[in-house]
Specification:
- By secondary structure, this protein is of the alpha/beta class.
- It is 33% helix and 24% strand.
- The protein is built from 15 helices and 19 strands.
- A 5-stranded mixed barrel has the order 14-15-16-17-19. A 4-stranded mixed beta sheet has the order 6-2-7-12.
- Helix 11 crosses helix 12 and helix 12 runs parallel beside helix 13.
- Its cofactor is [4Fe-4S] cluster.
- It catalyses: (S)-malate = fumarate + H2O.
- Belongs to the class-I fumarase family.
Length: 506
């Protein structure tokens, strides 16, 4: 029998969450490196390079890989012979570990959890509570798998109740393109099959805790139904040409993870949950001998990848740029932004809408300005701002007409695609949408030289800031003519992949 002490468990959870905030799993880094060397799409290759560089920088600097430090999911398997030395429940101990990790002054993590989700949606300020799954198993130790899951990828989760004769692969291939790029590919897909609706969802989430091993599976060959599905979906999903950040390319997924459970004869529940390019999870065991010891990876295990700005880069001064200038920008161009850049996301846009509806004067003049969809991590030391990567832009789509027509914005910066109506609005207003790389938050933050809050300070990370940036790299995703990289890129690369396959078979 093992006696697990409360403090050992809490300390282990807190240490694990700090650890995964700045250390990618090495198997994932190695999978991205393979994708980088294989990639033929320059836009996708550049995006993967930035993700890998950001990963190494985060490991070196012990700062978050992504500004969205996630909702905590914790799988706790408790041996039947374990005894607890604790006056708290397992849920309460996990939550206390979360609080300590997210309020660590040396590396504060962004608190993103809101209570009363159908009502006031008030931030809990400490990122608790976590989502905890508890399972009693044979043995005398405790096994914990813990992850921090970003909202952009979690929001793209899909669930379906298929008929028993329906094809799972067909559903995945039909569904994956509808998820857009808000889940920040390349990443993994966790698929849960069977059980009931909620069981399939838990299976899908737990599958994402497994290591990246698809290339080992390819070499040895599939033996089980799940393994055969993994290989088929991996091959066909990458042939869709979605590519890194949805810009078109050879690698959309670096692995497919599947778990299944027996189900009702009339049912086939399937849940698909993506993990983004900021994949963060770790496993540890407790046997009563003390807190878990997590061994830091060696920095030399990261690939030596560099990213250089091409000759055709367009340098832009945000303080002097005009609408005539913006009209010359072309879809797919790399732009380096310098000057003053506003920020704002969901809560700020909602408040702006309320003020405009009431005829109130806005606290910030948006006319002919650019806004960056971001909720940064708090700064430490001499940082102007903490990790500050882009949030999913589609959430702001419903506000775009208002911001372009009424507030007078000239451009927007975010991640992933925009909806068709928003693209039309951008075209109509001769504005522009620029895309920063999701999953490269620490790298992006290095371009921010100064930051100050201009309005809505009570919204915390959702307040309106003014950043002063220097050479912040972005891609023209939708130009003033309405040309859309997230439509053109995948279409081009899907066709090229088909050509490459045809050549190999010839």
């Amino acid at each position: 029998m093992s006696i697990i002490k409360k403090q050992d468990f809490i300390d282990s959870v807190a240490d694990a969450l700090q650890y995964i905030s700045y250390y990618h799993p090495l198997d994932f880094v190695q999978a991205l490196e393979k994708a980088y060397h294989k990639e033929q799409s320059q836009a996708a290759k550049d995006a993967i390079a930035q993700i890998l560089i950001n990963s190494r920088m985060s490991a070196e600097g012990h700062r978050p890989i992504c500004q969205d430090t996630g909702i905590v999911t914790c799988f706790v398997k408790i041996g039947m012979q374990v005894q607890w030395d604790s006056d708290l429940t397992v849920q309460q101990m996990v939550d206390e570990g979360v609080r300590r990790a997210y309020n660590n002054p040396d590396n504060p993590l962004r608190a993103s959890i809101v209570a009363d989700p159908a009502g006031a949606r008030k931030n809990t300020k400490d990122n608790a509570p976590a989502v905890v799954h508890i399972d009693m198993v044979p043995g005398d130790h405790v096994e914990v798998a813990i992850a921090a899951k970003g909202g952009g990828s979690e929001n793209k989760s899909k669930m379906v109740m298929l008929n028993p004769s329906d094809d799972i692969v067909e559903w995945v291939l039909k569904t994956l393109p509808t998820m857009g790029a808000g889940w920040c590919p390349p990443g993994m897909l966790g698929i849960g099959i069977g059980g009931t609706a909620e069981k399939a969802a838990v299976l899908a989430k737990e599958a994402l805790m497994d290591p990246v091993d698809i290339h080992d599976l390819i070499e040895r060959g599939a033996e089980t139904t799940e393994e055969k599905l993994r290989l088929e979906i991996f091959d066909k999903a990458n042939k869709l040409g979605i590519g890194a950040q949805g810009l078109g390319g050879l690698t959309t997924v670096v692995d497919i993870k599947i778990k299944s459970a027996p189900t009702h004869a009339a049912s086939k529940p399937v849940v698909m949950i993506p993990n983004c390019a900021a994949t963060r999870h770790v496993h540890f065991h407790l046997d009563g001998s003390g807190p878990a010891e997590l061994t830091p990876p060696k920095l030399e295990d990261w690939p030596e990848v560099t990213w250089e700005v091409g000759e055709n880069v367009r340098r832009v001064n945000l303080d002097t740029v005009t609408r005539d200038d913006v009209a010359q920008w072309k879809m797919g161009e790399t732009v380096l932004l310098s000057g003053k850049l506003l920020t704002g996301r969901d809560a700020a846009h909602k408040r702006i809408q309320e003020m405009l509806n009431k005829g109130e004067k806005l606290p910030v003049d948006f006319k002919d300005r650019f806004i960056y969809y971001v909720g940064p991590v708090d700064a430490i030391g001499d940082e102007a701002v903490g990790p500050a990567g882009p949030t999913t832009s589609t959430r702001m789509d419903k506000f775009t007409d208002m911001m372009l027509e009424q507030a007078g914005l000239m451009g927007m910066v975010g991640k992933a695609e925009r909806g068709p109506a928003t693209v039309e609005s951008i075209k109509r207003q001769k504005a522009v949408y620029l895309m920063a790389v999701g999953g490269a938050a620490y790298l992006v933050a290095k371009a921010v030289k100064k930051a100050r809050v201009l309005a809505f300070e009570d919204l915390g990370m959702e307040a309106i800031y003014e950043f002063e940036v220097e050479d912040m790299p972005v891609t023209v995703a939708v130009d003033a003519e309405g040309n859309n990289a997230h439509v053109a890129g995948p279409a081009i690369w899907q066709a090229r992949i088909e050509e490459l396959d045809a050549q190999l078979k010839a």
